[in-house]
Design goal:
Helix content: over 70%
Number of strands: 0
Largest sheet: none
Structural class: mainly alpha
Amino acid sequence: MLDAFENIYKVIVRPSVAFNDIKEKRYIYPAVFYLFLFGIVSVIFVIVVFRNFSIFLEEELFAQLPLDISESLKRYVSSPYFVVLSLITPYLSVFISTSIYNLIAEFAVKKSNGVPLFLCWSFASVPSLISKVLTIFLVSAFKIAPPIYVNLIFVIWGIVLYVIAIERVYEINRGLAIGILFIPFVLVFVIFSLFVALIMGIFTSV
């Protein structure tokens, strides 16, 4: 457990060193504990945001939400299924994303390093964890939501950490690591654009 917090600290202050260390020492149990901690924070985050939903949505829009949707969300957040799903989701999301990126790396750089990538990828989500904790604190203590630019900073920080994780795990240069990170997003954009073009073509030909 202490190794998990030590890795969190190292990822914040010296990410390159941290990811090299995680890769070499294979911190499996600290990563498992960290993802469990991430799940717990996610549960608290959703509950706090839901109970203070009007802070994140303008009063006029909040008042227009259908009653059945509000009640359904309330029942879901209060159910044990929500807690279980929130605790499982970090493991599934990291496993799926690292599987995709390890496959891309096999094609791009002819290297496969799935387990180290899984471990580094887990701790690369530290900015998201800190962002959730900050939101919980601000909403609970002051009834205010973090400004958009603060959330943007955490998003950019997270992207940088994911790039460094890929760079260190596969021992490649920064530019290639950036390319590997954004390949899935480019593919999704291209597929979506082709789909929209196809739909528009069907409608215009009718």
